[in-house]
Amino acid sequence: MHAKTLVLMVILATAGYAAALDSHGSINVAVTGENGLCVNNTVTINVTAERTGRALGGADVDGYFNNKKVFELKTEDDGVASFTPTAQGDYRIEIEKSGYRDTVKTVSVLSCVVETTTTSTSSTTSTTTVPATTTIPECVLSLCDCKCHLKGTTPEDIDGRLCGINCMGEFNISNCEYADGKCVEIYVTTTTVTETTTVETTTLTKTTTEVLTTPEEPEKQGIGGFAIILVIVIVLVAAAYLLTQKKEGGEKKKSIVDVHKEKSKNKPTKLEKA
């Protein structure tokens, strides 16, 4: 009886020691797929204690795709949980277990194609799933949050919203591209070019010469003007006088002619004398 008690105490001590080793330790996470990490294939998550390698059952496993939770799982007693991805891209897996540090692991899921190989020596057709290396996922720019999402996973597709943000005008985002396993935005840098135009102006200078007169000059000019007027008046008077004399001379001459005519009229002719 004493021996059984001793053995039981040893077992409990060993389990307590193992639990003490695991307590507040790190979690080891291994992610594998049936035929690689491919869309629509089962992906297995194996959770163990990093120090002892013991499977951790009952651990919470949450998966996020494009910052949205897509699954919530709990590991079985063997520390295993699984899910089937439906879209290509990066999945963030968060594992929580009481007494352990939280662990985050990111895995990239690819779009895979089925390669069929047929041999002529056998009627058996073997199917091998290989990761597609040439397929580039299609990314779409959402007009709700101006972020790039995989096609079919935008807020417009998921929530059925109609948005109309001017991503180019607000954030200089023109389009999307797939790089490093995710959709990223393409930013456009605006360069302002300033064009300077030089206009040549020709200025014409007009020189004006001003004649300054002394205070005596206006008086002289007034005297000169008066003299001119006086001359004109004298000329007009002389002309009027001449016209008057000419008229009087004409009338006097006419009078003399009239007298001669009267005398000739009154003088008897030769016939009258005879």
How would you describe this structure to a colleague?
With 274 residues, the protein is α+β, with helices and mostly antiparallel strands. Among the domains are: 24-113, Immunoglobulin-like; 136-191, no CATH class. It contains five helices and 13 strands. The strands form five sheets. The chain has a four-stranded antiparallel β-sheet with strand order 4-3-6-7, with no helix packed on it. Strand 12 (173-179) and strand 13 form a beta hairpin. The termini are far apart.
Detail the topology: elements first, then pairings.
Elements: H1 2-22, E1 27-33, E2 43-49, E3 60-65, E4 68-74, E5 80-83, E6 89-96, E7 103-109, E8 112-118, E9 125-131, E10 139-141, E11 148-150, H2 155-159, H3 167-171, E12 173-179, E13 182-187, H4 216-266, H5 270-273
Question: Concise description?
Answer:
This protein has helices at residues 2-22, 155-159, 167-171, 216-266, 270-273; strands at residues 27-33, 43-49, 60-65, 68-74, 80-83, 89-96, 103-109, 112-118, 125-131, 139-141, 148-150, 173-179, 182-187.
Keywords:
31% helix; alpha+beta; 274 residues; Immunoglobulin-like
CATH topology of the domain at 24-113: Immunoglobulin-like
Distance between the termini: 228 Å
The portion of residues assigned to helices is 25-40%
The H-and-E topology, N to C, reads as HEEEEEEEEEEEHHEEHH
* The CATH fourth-level homologous superfamily of the domain at 24-113: Immunoglobulins
Q: Structural class of the helices, strands and pairings?
A: alpha+beta
Instruction: Please tally the helical runs, counting DSSP H or I stretches of 4 or more residues.
Output: 5
Low-confidence stretches: 211-216
Percent strand equals 25-35%
Radius of gyration: 63 Å
Largest sheet: 4 strands, antiparallel
Number of strands: 13
Overall geometric form: rod-shaped
CATH class of the domain at 24-113 reads Mainly Beta
Assign the CATH architecture of the domain at 24-113.
Sandwich
